[in-house]
Amino acid sequence: MTRPIGIFGIGLIGNAIAIRLISNGYQVSGCDPDPARGAALEQMGGKACDAQSIWETGCVFSCVFDTDQLESLIVDAPAITATLISVSTCDPDRMAGLGQMAAAKGITLIEAPISGTSRSLAAGDVLLMVAGDRDVAHDLAPVFQALSRAHIHVGDHGNGNRAKLAINLVLGLNRAALAEGMVFAETLGIAPDDFLNLAKASAAYSSVMDGKGTLMATRDFTAQGRIVQSHKDFELIADKAAQANQGLPFTQTYLNMMRDALDHGEGDLDNSAVLLPIARAKPD
């Protein structure tokens, strides 16, 4: 019998984790303020539970939105022997302190932010950037293997999210480059589907075209990773760069597009909807 696992937050990422773990024989419980998400989990073979029951599984995933919510989760946790695996993109400079806060309650905090969309996570095609206690992380290897194509231990608390932020910067700019190229091609009379096929066969190819290209071409922005999350991550990227006195001009341009999307009520669309503020842009 595989170990029981609890999940706090069963939105896009938490649901995808549940899919992977249930399909690999794990007993999965979830806690979410939205009853519909709990009902969906039970339809998959999991169990909707209260917070205490989640902690009692001993192996807990945090799929909350940001660092503040992770801190609240730890503050509200009981004194219990458990491992808490945070897969969210969080402020790397706060992770060591959160690890100490968790340890005071008997909880071992492990970072494992995900590189990949919720859809790729559900398929097991993601990278986990693991940080924290190496021995505990080693013991979690079967769980990480059930979720991902690879998991790499990157050192102490904070390093997982430092790596994640840098990778998210590259991914976000790749999405924006594809979106701007598609908008430009369409203004020249090239159909989006035709341009996407040409781009995939060209020297400009990137895997972003496989994951996001069709969404852009069809303007079907059903969320795999939301604009509001991308905005949160890029605000954090910009803040960390500013603290290091490093300018990131492309990051600022991307942030402006995210802010435009939020101003137009597009925060819950997929992050490929970066195409929309680009399409609205006018020459200076």
What is the overall pLDDT average?
Answer: 96
Task: Give the total of domains.
Answer: 2
Order of helices and strands: EHEHEHEHEHEEHEHHEHHHHHH
Stretches where pLDDT is under 50 for at least 5 consecutive residues are: none
- Give helix % range: 40-55%
- What does the main sheet amount to? 6 strands, parallel
Please identify the structural class as seen in this structure.
alpha/beta
Q: CATH topology of the largest domain, what is it called?
A: Rossmann fold
- CATH homologous superfamily identity of the largest domain: NAD(P)-binding Rossmann-like Domain
- Rg, Å, rounded: 20 Å
Second rung of CATH, namely the architecture of the largest domain: 3-Layer(aba) Sandwich
**Number of helices, counting only DSSP H or I runs of 4 residues or more:** 14
End-to-end separation in angstroms reads: 63 Å
Count of distinct strands: 9
> Which strands sit side by side, in order, in the main sheet?
3-2-1-4-5-6
Active site: 164
Keywords: NAD, Oxidoreductase
Domain 3-hydroxyisobutyrate dehydrogenase-like NAD-binding: 158-275
Domain 6-phosphogluconate dehydrogenase NADP-binding: 5-155
Structural description of this entry:
It is a single chain. The chain is an alpha/beta fold and 284 residues long. The chain has two domains: 4-156, 3-Layer(aba) Sandwich (Rossmann fold); 161-280, Orthogonal Bundle (N-(1-d-carboxylethyl)-l-norvaline Dehydrogenase, domain 2), CATH 1.10.1040.10. Helices cover 54% and strands 13% of the residues. It contains 14 helices and nine strands. A six-stranded parallel β-sheet has the order 3-2-1-4-5-6. Strand 4 (59-62), helix 4 and strand 5 (82-86) form a beta-alpha-beta unit. Helix 4 runs parallel beside helix 5, helix 10 runs antiparallel to helix 11 and helix 12 (227-243) packs antiparallel against helix 13 (249-263). The protein is globular and about 60 Å long. The termini are far apart. The model has no long low-confidence stretch (mean pLDDT 96). It comes from Pontivivens marinum. Residues 158-275 form the 3-hydroxyisobutyrate dehydrogenase-like NAD-binding domain. Residues 5-155 form the 6-phosphogluconate dehydrogenase NADP-binding domain. The active site is at 164. Keywords: NAD, Oxidoreductase.
